[in-house]
Design goal:
Length: 164
């Protein structure tokens, strides 16, 4: 009764070597980011510099390489992907600027906020200020990753349709 019009898409296979390489690169980025934040913390705009470097590093990994839940990988050697690099760089700059402006605003507001923002809430003892300072970059980051991956997947799908 219901005919299947297309073959079901198979999830791309990720080898153990690729998984190990991505995990190693992720750990290098994580520890490198922590080191940057510690090393640059007291310098003028040190937090913003560490944020920009760490954010860019992980944005490249999450956009181009397979991760949990997003197994599609996009090769920078692919000419179709290379044509989208200027657009992806513009998107990255826009998201990075919005992140840095939000971070500068929150750091600037810190002396003027009431003590409620710095009172520990819940069992973990997190403050509302810490949650906002961590949550904002995470939301901006995943918005960029999903936007960029959407552009790349549409580009590849469009070219597949033209070739078929």
């Amino acid at each position: 009764m219901f005919e299947q019009l297309e073959e079901p898409k198979k999830a791309p296979q990720v080898s153990r070597a690729m998984t190990f390489g991505i995990a190693a690169a992720y750990l290098v980025g994580a520890f490198g980011g922590i080191f940057l934040f510690i090393f640059l913390e007291e310098r003028p705009f040190g937090i913003q510099i560490a944020t920009a470097v760490t954010y860019t590093y992980f944005a490249v990994w999450y956009v181009f390489f397979p991760t949990r839940g997003m197994l599609e990988k996009y090769s920078l050697r692919d000419e179709r992907i290379q044509r989208k690099i200027p657009l992806l760089l513009a998107i990255h700059c826009a998201f990075l600027i919005s992140l840095l402006l939000a971070q500068i605003e929150w750091l600037g507001m810190k002396p003027y906020l009431s003590s409620y923002w710095f009172t520990e809430h819940g069992k973990k003892g997190d403050t509302l200020y810490e949650l906002v300072m961590v949550g904002t970059p995470v939301l901006i980051f995943f918005a960029q990753v999903l936007t960029s991956r959407g552009i790349l997947s549409r580009r590849l799908a469009k070219n597949r349709d033209v070739a078929a």
